[in-house]
Amino acid sequence: MSVLTEVYSFYGAFSGTKGVYGFSEQGRPLVYCTVGEGRPLVLAQYAMHAREHITARLALKQAADGLRGKTGSVVYLPLTNPDGVKLCEEGRPQWKANAEGVDLNVNFPARWGTGVQNKRSAGASDFIGEFPLCAAESAALAEFTRRVRPDMTVSFHAKGEEIYWYFYQQEPALSRDRALAEIAAGETGYVLRTPSGSAGGYKDWCVEALGIPALTVEVGGDSLSHPIGQESAEEIYGRNRTLLPALLAALAGADKKDEG
């Protein structure tokens, strides 16, 4: 079964709060499902890069598993780039961008165009677009994020078993965000990294423009090949099964401390 079929079938059968927050360049719905209710609220997005569509399957497993009794809610965006995933599944296995050749994760207004790997022409990866948020998918994601006002975002990518959290934030946000990243590392066993020379990502924008903690979680070992196959889904889920509930618990604890 294709990833698009899996995601849209799950969405159709999902009985909780759900909706369409926008449409792709080719008119496919960008869907979300909410598990839990109230605050804190984590927005989790997946499959922004087409060849990393194993993360969409992770989203469905996490959403079906629930929040393990934790307070708050998670808004799951399982398929941020449906057009690109379709291209990937239909003969372009290394494709990362959307259908227009824009790499969505360098199309956000967070020091846009300054990344060392940025490209100025459309293609399979790294094209920053004509201007920030020129892609239908990134524009919809930014608008939805502002509307939902999450307390934190988590972006699932592949691969490397690493977690990125830093984007020039200063204290007290620096210590706050590092602490949440360390919780994520403890839950997954992944390594914290501080990249240099990257810009324009969704995580970067959440940190810089919205002032909220944001993580990029790279699932799957480096020995795996793109696109990561279904045979690795259970192992990836096992490493990330408790991640979002643990982050919710940490955010809820921070809120109670602030109230005290």
What can you see in these coordinates?
- Helix 1 runs parallel beside helix 2, helix 2 packs across helix 7 and helix 5 runs antiparallel to helix 8.
- With 260 residues, the chain is of the alpha/beta class.
- The protein is built from eight helices and eight strands; from the N terminus they run αβββαβααββαβαβαα.
- It is globular, with a radius of gyration of 17 Å.
- The model has no long low-confidence stretch (mean pLDDT 96).
- It has one domain: Zn peptidases (Aminopeptidase, 3-Layer(aba) Sandwich).
- An eight-stranded mixed sheet has the order 1-2-4-3-5-8-6-7, sandwiched between helices.
Which percent band covers the strand fraction?
Answer: 15-25%
| Unreliable residue runs | none
Terminal Cα span? 50 Å
Main sheet makeup: 8 strands, mixed
**How large is the radius of gyration?**
17 Å
User: Which structural class do the helices and strands define?
Assistant: alpha/beta
Q: How many domains? A: 1
